[in-house]
């Protein structure tokens, strides 16, 4: 799925550049100016017309696009309709002819074919002074579905008007396609988060409740505290909104998880934390750390006779936060792990770690894939590099407030 999104995004950008070149040919000055001026003007107009469409075909996006496309093409009018033929935007003159074009518009949105309407075939009360000579209506088709239609009204009936309508429609379709890609990317991320939540549920919740249940009689105070940690852990992990969180929030959730696991494993599990205060506000992908820590406990320490230690470090590394999850457990073959991570979406092996590795690459690029150092009997060390600032990565309103967070400065805790 991720590879498909990347390929389609590349095609979309290539198509945009092609359309831009054709715009320059169609719109360059005939008598004055230069090709360079035409290029700059086209780029400026397109850059103003495009952003709104990245959110889909809305009335606001249509208004923004039609305004700037009219200035670019210098036509009589530019209109945009939705998939039902309803007018979303009309910029320019001859708007009284929209009703005359309604039948042709419905034909276009129903059958997906271009329509060419000549002014001489319309009823017009201002035939001598009407600026319109022809209209071209082109369907806007995205992923095989008709999303709407573009209307270009020209003062001259020419092949240039038809070609301009086709190229403008292609440009709009590219932007709407990119909007679909953005939506699918968001859905993909949400699906990956749901997969992580599903993994938490069977492997952790049952054991946590068993541990708390066993402590109710022997140590009711500890049972009460663990129950509160468990409630906070599940409330955070199963929240329904937000793709990102602060590193402080993620670490607080990791600490809750390890508190419960320490109660379960007793002396077989020790934990170390060392957190630099200056990186706690760094924004990270939601649920990016807990599955890595769970992997260290389940696959590293739990399988080692006598248990071991899980270490969680977060350090300032210039423009990045450097987060390390390390265990001195059983380890595994490094080449096999790399193969499992690469094929996790197919095999299901190490799905939590593979999921996070894929998310890091999708959000920050391949250079921010997880770094794994492991060998049989030598434990496992996973390093996560998160840029302190990255375009499009922000937390907005925090849907979960961390209460009584203990990470207020550098610390080393042994449990």
From TrEMBL:
Pfam families: HATPase_c, His_kinase. Keywords: Coiled coil, Kinase, Membrane, Transferase, Transmembrane, Transmembrane helix. One of its GO terms (cellular component) is membrane. This is Histidine kinase. PROSITE patterns: HIS_KIN. The lineage of its organism: Bacteria, Bacillati, Actinomycetota, Actinomycetes, Pseudonocardiales. InterPro entries: Bact_2-comp_sensor_kinase, HATPase_C_sf, HATPase_dom, His_kinase_dom, Sig_transdc_His_kin_internal. It comes from the Bacteria. The chain crosses the membrane at residues 9-26. GO terms for molecular function: phosphorelay sensor kinase activity.
């Amino acid at each position: 799925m991720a590879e498909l999104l990347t390929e389609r995004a590349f095609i979309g950008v290539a198509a945009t550049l092609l359309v831009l070149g054709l715009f320059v040919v169609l719109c360059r000055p005939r008598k004055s100016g230069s090709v360079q001026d035409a290029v700059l003007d086209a780029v400026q107009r397109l850059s103003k017309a495009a952003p709104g469409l990245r959110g889909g075909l809305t009335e606001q996006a249509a208004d923004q696009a039609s305004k700037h496309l009219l200035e670019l093409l210098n036509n009589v009018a530019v209109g945009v309709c939705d998939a039902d033929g309803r007018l979303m935007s009309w910029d320019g003159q001859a708007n009284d002819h929209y009703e005359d074009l309604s039948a042709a518009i419905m034909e276009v949105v129903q059958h997906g074919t271009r329509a060419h309407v000549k002014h001489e075939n319309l009823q017009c009360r201002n035939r001598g002074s009407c600026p319109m000579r022809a209209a071209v209506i082109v369907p806007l088709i995205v992923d095989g579905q008709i999303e709407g239609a573009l209307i270009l009204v020209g003062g001259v009936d020419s092949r240039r008007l038809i070609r301009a309508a086709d190229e403008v429609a292609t440009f709009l379709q590219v932007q709407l396609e990119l909007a679909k890609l953005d939506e699918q990317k968001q859905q993909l991320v949400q699906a990956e988060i749901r997969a992580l939540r599903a993994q938490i549920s069977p492997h952790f919740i049952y054991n946590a409740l068993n541990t708390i249940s066993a402590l109710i009689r022997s140590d009711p105070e500890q049972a009460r505290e663990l129950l509160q940690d468990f409630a906070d852990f599940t409330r955070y992990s199963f929240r329904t909104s937000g793709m990102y969180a602060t590193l402080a929030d993620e670490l607080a959730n990791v600490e809750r998880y390890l508190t419960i696991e320490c109660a379960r494993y007793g002396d077989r599990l020790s934990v170390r934390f060392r957190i630099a205060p200056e990186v706690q506000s760094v924004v990270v992908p939601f649920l990016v750390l807990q599955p890595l820590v769970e992997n260290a406990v389940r696959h590293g320490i739990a399988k080692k006779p006598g248990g071991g230690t899980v270490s969680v470090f977060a350090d300032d590394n210039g423009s990045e936060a450097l987060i390390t999850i390390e265990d001195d457990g059983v380890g595994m073959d490094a080449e096999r792990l790399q193969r499992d991570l690469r094929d996790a979406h197919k095999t299901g092996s190490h799905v939590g770690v593979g999921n996070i590795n894929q998310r890091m690459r999708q959000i920050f690029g391949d250079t921010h894939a997880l770094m794994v150092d492991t060998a049989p009997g030598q434990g496992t060390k996973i390093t996560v590099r998160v840029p302190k600032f990255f375009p499009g990565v922000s937390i907005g309103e925090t849907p979960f407030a961390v209460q009584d967070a203990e990470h207020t400065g550098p610390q080393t805790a042994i449990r």
